[in-house]
Amino acid sequence: MRPIKLVAALATIMAIAATSFVLFALSVFSSFEHSDGSQVFPDDIDTSASPSGVVALPEQVPPAYRGAFVNYTKVIAPNGKPIHILAQKNWTEAQIVKGRSVLEHILRDAPNSRFGKDKTNVANTIANTKGAMVFLNTEASFNTPEFEEFMRRNDFGGIQDLRANETPVEGTVDYLEHRTRDASFEEILHFVHDYGIKPALPDFQKQIEAASDAATARGFQGWPEDEPENHNNEYFAAVYDVYLDLWKRNPTLYEGQDMRGEVPAGTTHFGAYPLATNREELAANDPKGLAIINGFFQPFLTYIAELPESFSGTFSLREDGGFPYSYKASRLAYVRLHGDNPAKIIGNAYDNRFWGNAGDNEFDGGAGHDTTYFSGNFAEYSLTAAGERLTVRDNKLGRDGTDTLKNIEALQFADRTVPVPAD
Ligand SMILES: [Ca+2]
Ligand SMILES: [Ca+2]
């Protein structure tokens, strides 16, 4: 239940290095070892050959890392340095991409916010610390010899874990049926908070601590296993989950375990946060919590939800009781379809951006200034208006198909943007 934070124990590393024959055996790898026995994780892994940016950990990576992890991606901070993401084998490529997208989202500037309008220093601080997200299979992965070896030998300055069985990807059956509790926002926000916000934004940190203390006085319970100084870290992430409406309708699985009946009414996070269960209640019942969210984030999720090729049917960003996931999806704004299944996307009041697939798609942007993206140049498409609908047919076979648009204000082609005239 409790997110587990990891701190490399340098003293332990040195004690082991001083006494162990293992070190002798590893001396052939000395070109990537520090004098304390930890191994150097390279800062220059090339991910450019992979369209998704996810690659297998290359040979140049020392064995302590390759023993525990198989795949890799990164986010480049404004200073040009990487923030590392290492993933174990249970993680699908789509899950790794989502995790990276959530990290990019949390680090994306929020122009109208007090502390988040320029996050350069936050991201640079994490990269300078040599921070790494570690995507583990399950909680049991902590207790494997491979992971323990990784913990003894890694040279990361800050590590936060997230597990594969708590990271559902938009458009998968698990997501659509709102089964697995999505912990990616919570855990990745912990990472940014600990290694970016605390060192880089001390005034914001003071505000978070004050809001956390006020909520604690009203019943918020930091995880009991945690030191009290970590409660503000749990609080910020819990409030952000609530703001994203992840608990507006309770999920049914917690890391593979049935969690039905485990969340007292009127609370989230298994009762730890008792002040609000959704964004509307947050404004009324925990305005200090809402203020810290508004101090760092935009109202919507700024990453593109990449729906899998298997998806077909309707994906709704508008709350609709017929779609159990639509509460959490209501905070998305950007969606991309893949494959060639016919599919429809229903937008919300945000300025939506939609990317269709090779099948015939329908897009309804709803309110806001909404844009649909196409693969080719404007001259390669035929446009037909009929009432409030606009049909856009790709004259190149097998590319974008024939898409029908409603409440869309702009068409973005490879070569130009075409505004849709109001009717
Ligand atoms: Ca919209
Ligand atoms: Ca299409």
Description:
The protein has 423 residues and is an alpha/beta fold. The protein contains 13 helices and 20 strands. The chain has helices at 10-19, 21-25, 63-68, 93-107, 120-128, 145-153, 173-176, 184-200, 202-217, 231-243, 279-285, 287-294, 326-329, and strands at 5-6, 55-56, 71-76, 82-87, 131-136, 158-163, 253-254, 257-258, 301-306, 313-316, 332-336, 343-346, 353-355, 361-364, 371-373, 381-386, 389-394, 402-406, 410-412, 417-419. The strands form four sheets. It has a six-stranded mixed beta sheet with strand order 1-6-5-4-3-2. A six-stranded mixed beta sheet has the order 9-11-13-15-19-20. The chain has a six-stranded mixed beta sheet with strand order 10-12-14-18-17-16, with no helix packed on it. A hairpin with a 7-residue loop joins β17 and β18. α10 crosses α12. It is globular, with a radius of gyration of 23 Å. The N and C termini lie far apart (52 Å). The relative contact order is 0.09. The structure holds calcium ion (2 copies). One calcium ion (CA) binds at residues 347-350, 352, 365-368, 370.
